[in-house]
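Title: Prediction job returns without error message
Component: structure pipeline
Severity: low
Priority: P3
Assignee: unassigned

Description:
Job completed but the reporter wants confirmation the result is attached to the right record. Sequence as submitted:
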Amino acid sequence: MKAPKISEAVVRRLPVYLRYLTHLQQMQVKTVSSQQMGKTLDVNPAQIRKDLSSFGDFGKKGIGYDVDYLIEKIRQILKLDQEIHVALVGAGHLGHAISNYNAYLRDNMRIVAIFDNDPAKKGKRIAGLRIQPLGELKETVKRLQIRLAIITVPAAAAQVVADQLIEAGIEGILNFAPVTIRTDANVRIHHADVTSSLQSLAYYLNQGIPIDRSRSDGNDYHQRDSFNGK
């Protein structure tokens, strides 16, 4: 039987649920209802139930969701229960920041290799990882079984780098370069454009336009202060 097609919006919301559930776990909370989750995450509880039911029956009527169990299941769905190696290409300021953040991750998804073609950076270390030239990309991807990559290079170099990553066997790319990457290969590419996000956010300044949370696509969440630690 063919598995049902899951929308990208649902997949993008799962990490948000996981982050909140992990927060609850740290607070030693055992169960949570979709109403509680919805109130904190500003997501329609019915949407949460629908999202989770796409993968199975995880909740109990009148009780809610077992936090530990739901964390385990979402991690399995997102394949975070297995070790996933990531490569980063571009050891500039943004690449440094992402690599240093990697040291604090408590997950199976980790950056294990950093690449940059600047001869002045070759051999230097970021967060314990040696910066390698792109000429070592293919061999390193194979040796370390790297499946995902992050691109933080200038726009002019992004497409060439993406082509090299795909040729090396990378299955998914998170692109921070301000340019759209195109490929005919069966490789998933997500674009993280900070400038465009800020520009679209600026549209709402001084307008007092409320965001319709019931139509959230998973890219816009405003956690309450009790959750985000402010």
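Comment from assignee: result matches the submitted record. Strands lie at 31-32, 59-60, 64-66, 84-89, 109-115, 125-126, 129-132, 146-151, 172-175, 188-191.
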